[in-house]
Design goal:
The complex is a heterodimer. In chain A, 44% of the residues lie in helices and 8% in strands. Chain A is an alpha/beta fold. Chain A starts with 36 loop residues before the first helix and ends with a helix. The chains are: A alpha/beta, B alpha/beta.
Amino acid sequence: MSAGGPLSTDGLVQLLTADGQRTAHEQFDPYADHLTADDLRAMWRDMTLVRAFDKEATSLQRQGELGLWVQSWGQEGAQIGSGHALNGQDFVFPSYREHGVALTRGVDLVEVLRIFRGLQHGAWTPAEHHFHLYTLVIGSHALHATGYAMAMAKDGLVASGDPAKDGAVVAYFGDGATSQGDVAEALTFASVYDAPVVFFVQNNQYAISESATRQSRVPIADRGKGVGIPSVRVDGNDVIASHAVTRWALEHARSGQGPVLIEAFTYRMGAHTTSDDPTRYRPKAEEQLWAERDPIARLEAYLTSTGELSDDFRTEVEAEAKALGERTRTTVRAWTKPDTLGMFDHVYAEPHASVEAERAWFDRYQRSFADQEATR
Amino acid sequence: MTTLDERPATASGQPATASAPGKPASAARPAPTTMTMAGAINAGLRAAMERDDKTLLMGEDIGALGGVFRVTDGLHKDFGDDRVMDTPLAESGIVGTAIGMAMRGYRPVIEIQFDGFIFPAYDQITTQLAKMHYRSGGAIQLPVVIRVPFAGGIGAVEHHSESPEALFAHTAGLRIVSPATPQDAFDMIQQAIASPDPVMFFEPKARYWDKGEVDPTRVKAQLDAASGASTGTAEMSRARVAREGSDVTVVAYGPTVRLALQAAQVAADDGTDVEVIDLRSISPLDSDTVVTSARKTGRVVVVHEAPTSFGSGAELSSRVHEQAFFHLHAPVLRVGGFSTPYPGAVFEHDYLPSLDRVLDAVDKVMAH
């Protein structure tokens, strides 16, 4: 690992060591001490569920049921830890690998697969979950998140002092996105307008095949410094630290102190997508090294050492994961192609002459075959 | 019948501005006034901001300076930082953050300083702004207006005279309009802001200081009656027959409408009766109005400043050929910019459609 570069482990906040020992941290312990055994078990459960779902979706892609799948495997700690720090009034702008965060926002994971089966481009109502649609163009949504946060501030939903009212926005993106101009512009806008937005960067070390060293010479968190945004590096495979750091950042933003940048240092255990082949660009030994830092195993070790993970609970969650896998399989396989004319819907909010004319023509065209069939 | 007290509320929940209570509406109706196009847009922005407090302006130098063309003059003083936002110098950032604000119910009206500076925002406009309503299955509306001072004729340096409207018209999800008169500028900017769809509002900068009569009552009555239901989208999308004629149809929009009317005047002296259609809208394209005219005259010339190759005139020509082929006496001709970058200012009057080139095209179609 290059010293001081984007792959260094310098300055990472860690509350749980790789082998599951709880370590003390003066600044961030106060943001983790409230966590009860129930809270930690809930995080373990969510991480376990999203990983099971992820495996199932990968299998479905291999069976030809999905066009593509984007695995979250390995990043569950960063996603579930931060997701559990959010309140209902906060609003999330995910990239496209944030299945773990989706779960914490109450999105039915199975529904996410509608996108990857090509049925529709968005599969949930963002306002219902305070969870925006996946954005596939890298980094574009960092600006949407910033604008949304600026609007929350205009609406008086920041710094009112009422914890039931004050909210913030979290934008999730990766190390590759930090090279995008839109992310640089988002940092600038957020900074000069004091927008209540947390930029949560999962540095999973690869943008498809390119190392994070091709995106930056300095740790990703340093990007915030140049525009005056407080930034912190956290061990993204430590679900407790990811949670604590996000909780701190959200309090900062909700209270009107402006944006925060979090770099969660983690590892993408799977391929970029099911179309990718990591054997062409990264060594097996590296994957093995990161397998030993697994976020689920780490919390499991901790909860086992404290006697807070009973066999009954494990069995219960395992059954839940199995049921989710089964429901995923049967639901996806049962999905059929909706009415073709639906592809003309919602291009505009009000009628547009070209779209309407083409819809009417295509309808007549399709019906002409039905008429031929009928007269045969 | 609706009395003044019962008039519908605006989208923001505020009662629509009423004329003096107890008097008939006609008594309080302001008389038409003479305005420049820039002044008409300024007045239209002001009216939209008074109508709906969610309407806000974003752009570079639009605050204390009033914009490089002074179109937002005085609005910052009256509406403040929160509603007239001088932004960082980053076009993608402006459009991207406007999208986020629109998601929370705001109606951002963006000023892009010059046509040639819009391209840093091209990605946000085409992949995000245009597609969000479709992507979300109709759950997210983005009523964002992007004002673009465009087209040439002002002796400017590079990137300050371009006509990129066709690039955006090729993207589903955007509405593309361009006013040609102060009256339309006043009406259409308010209709664009009231529309629930993203609208690109191309302002012919060479026409900013042309004067014309503006009657402020028509669009007000229309938007008062709409009350959030039908917003004026249809109104601004309808082409206008700017001059009736029977021999040739000349179709123009934005900066070339005045040129088309001048050509019609000159042609009339030669005994050719030219009908001039001001499209107003590029997307959607009101081909019905053009096709009706083409069936009447049998001859069509399209005039725009943008390069003719792959331009909006090519699309219009194709539609006329498809829908009025057997009424045509001559092929549809296009008069426009060439397939070169916009040249240096000393060449621009050779590059741009001129009175002679329009008349030459009229003569050609009349020769058949």
